[in-house]
Design brief:
- This protein is mainly beta.
- Helix content is 3%, strand content 49%.
- The chain contains 1 helix and 27 strands.
- It has one helix spanning 315-323, and strands at 4-8, 14-18, 28-30, 36-42, 47-50, 55-58, 65-68, 74-81, 86-92, 95-98, 111-117, 119-124, 128-133, 138-142, 157-162, 169-174, 178-183, 188-193, 216-222, 231-235, 238-244, 247-254, 266-273, 279-285, 288-293, 297-302, 307-313.
- Strands 7-6-5-4-8-9-10-11 form an 8-stranded mixed β-sheet, with no helix packed on it. Strands 12-13-14-15 form a 4-stranded antiparallel β-sheet, with no helix packed on it.
- A hairpin with a 4-residue loop joins strand 17 and strand 18 (188-193).
- The longest helix is centred in the last third of the chain and has 9 residues, at 315-323.
- The mean pLDDT is 84.
């Protein structure tokens, strides 16, 4: 959701970078974090989970990290700090535990969130958060003015509420005010704000519509025109899903984030993005659709040239890591 990004190498090395004033910055190898299992959802920064369940939050300059004091191993975490919505939660022993909104998160005492256990994963968006239960059900909380809680109403909720009509879910993705979920069969369902077509229902405001134009989808609906997908993500008012074999990427929503000829329209249906050889799809983040190259570079889609262009080079960070003495 923000302008800072992270990546984990296969051997657990954490890489971090930001876009500064909209410009790409070469990635840094964050060697102060122990080998990690992966990046966790920190909408306003970078956080990493270590293999033994420790949680590290990386500072703004990406030069230090603070270990968050939690009395049990952490399996999932979200951090979102915005004017409209804030969430700071972890999952320990299958229970959702949340802290007071934002502030110095590493110093906050986490408390149990009532009536929600058996939690597998959690995600934070711009105005809401969702928890995926081990049963495949989804519960969300936060703002609801655009139907992002899929309750059919517009009243916000401080407590997690079950999303009706969804089952067998394995992954959730949240944008600013919309959400999508992928089920075990590889199908995608979306809900919430679809003014730019980000809910994939084929409904969107026309490019020249007045600012008062707005469309919402208060209940989950299937996104048609997709194959069986392997992953799903969202950012702001753009959603993406893809396959790994063969590599393919599909996006829908605000086409301005895809640039070029597509920038004058909002797409309410999935658009297949040509993926050159040597690139693996990553999906939606910050300013558009991204892919990872075999050359350790991150690429962003630029539709004027019908190709992905490199925006971040991970190579220097990896080379710098190899040049340092081995750790004990």
């Amino acid at each position: 959701m923000g302008s800072r990004f992270g990546a984990i190498t296969t051997d657990g090395l954490l890489l971090g970078w930001d876009l500064g004033a909209g410009l790409p910055v070469v990635a840094r190898a964050l060697r102060f974090v122990p080998p990690s299992t992966g990046i966790v959802d920190a909408a306003d920064g970078i956080a990493a989970l270590t293999r033994d369940g420790q949680l590290f939050l990386v500072d703004d300059g990406m030069k230090a990290a603070t270990r968050m004091a939690v009395d049990q191993p952490v399996t999932a975490f979200v951090l979102a700090c915005a004017a409209e919505f804030s969430a700071s939660c972890v999952v320990t022993a299958g229970a959702l535990r949340c802290a007071p909104p934002c502030g110095d998160v590493e110093r906050l005492k986490l408390e149990d969130a009532p009536r929600l256990s058996g939690v597998a994963r959690i995600w934070a968006g711009g105005t809401s958060a969702c928890a995926l239960l081990e049963t495949g059900a989804v519960h969300c909380w936060g703002e609801n003015g655009a139907g992002q809680l899929a309750t059919g109403a517009v009243k916000r909720s401080e407590r997690p509420r079950a999303l009706p009509g969804l089952s067998g879910i394995v992954e959730v993705a949240l944008g600013h005010a919309h959400g999508c979920a992928r089920d075990r069969a590889g199908r995608v369902h979306c809900w919430g704000d679809t003014t730019r077509g980000q809910a994939g229902t084929g409904v969107a405001c026309p490019p020249d519509a007045p600012l008062v134009c707005r469309h919402t989808q208060p209940h989950p609906k299937p996104v048609n025109g997709l194959p069986k997908v392997d992953f799903l993500n969202a950012a702001e008012d753009l959603s993406c899903a893809g396959t790994t074999d063969p590599p393919a990427l599909y996006c829908w929503g605000d086409a301005r984030r895809l640039g070029g000829a597509a920038s004058t329209t909002a797409r309410g249906k999935p658009l297949g993005l040509p993926l050159p050889d040597g690139l693996s799809p990553l999906g939606a983040a910050h300013a558009g659709a991204y892919a990872l190259g075999d050359d350790n570079r991150v690429y962003r889609w630029v539709s004027t040239r019908q190709e992905f262009v490199a925006v971040v080079d991970l190579g220097p960070a990896l080379d710098a890591e190899r040049a340092t003495p081995a750790r004990d």
